[in-house]
Design brief:
alpha/beta; five-stranded parallel beta sheet; about 15% strand; two-stranded antiparallel ribbon; Rossmann fold; 11 helices
């Protein structure tokens, strides 16, 4: 029986995409953009900041390694707020209904401690949660067990009675390994159906 619902944020409730900035930076140069994200500002590099590395340190280290890409590297965090596309409204509406129905709601997010305050100020619905664990504040991240365990311990969550929603299949698999029910997010409609199958009525 489910008694707690845990959301990922980016890609589920918040639309964040570097393409909003770098499609313009690399206008007409798709191969150059692909090279940049495959070899310079990689996903692994970004996750180090999600796990607590200071943005300035990350930027200066990368500039030293790839000075020919300095402008583009500095743009990544220099224009980070422009990568926020806004709330994913259909899922925010689901969150609103769950809140109104009294469900305990938590968030477990891979997010830099330095950029998360920008989102908190911009999106009121982040204040609807009973608690949020931010990877950059904890110096760890999904999919590692220690990050999930911080959430469980801090908020007295029993994993087997909680459902976790994330758009990253790696994190979904980790949540299941750690005893949670887990939903791979695709669309708001599919999320509603998956929640109902677990006994969580939405609206």
């Amino acid at each position: 029986m489910i008694d707690t619902i845990v959301f990922d944020l980016g890609g589920v409730l918040v639309d964040w995409n570097p393409d909003y900035v770098f499609d313009k930076v690399f206008a007409g140069q798709p191969e150059r953009k692909e090279h940049f994200f495959t070899n310079i500002c990689t996903g692994d590099w970004n996750e180090m900041q999600d796990a607590g590395r200071p943005l300035a340190e990350a930027t200066e280290t990368l500039v030293a390694e790839h000075p020919e890409w300095e402008s583009e590297i500095r743009t990544f965090y220099g224009r980070w707020s422009d990568m926020l596309g806004g709330p994913i409204d259909e899922v925010v509406e689901i969150l609103k209904m769950l809140k109104a129905d009294g469900w305990p709601l938590y968030a477990l997010t891979n997010w830099s401690a330095e950029t998360f305050p920008i989102a908190k100020e911009r999106y009121d619905f982040l204040g609807w949660f009973d608690g949020i664990a931010v990877s950059g504040e904890e110096n760890t991240r999904k999919p590692f067990r220690e990050f999930f365990q911080i959430l469980f311990d801090r908020y007295s969550i029993e994993p087997t009675r909680a459902v976790f929603i994330d758009d990253n299949l790696r994190n979904v698999a980790a949540a299941e390994e750690y005893g949670m029910h887990a939903i791979a997010f695709t669309t708001a409609a599919a999320l509603k159906d998956s929640l109902r199958k677990l006994g969580v009525q939405v609206g």
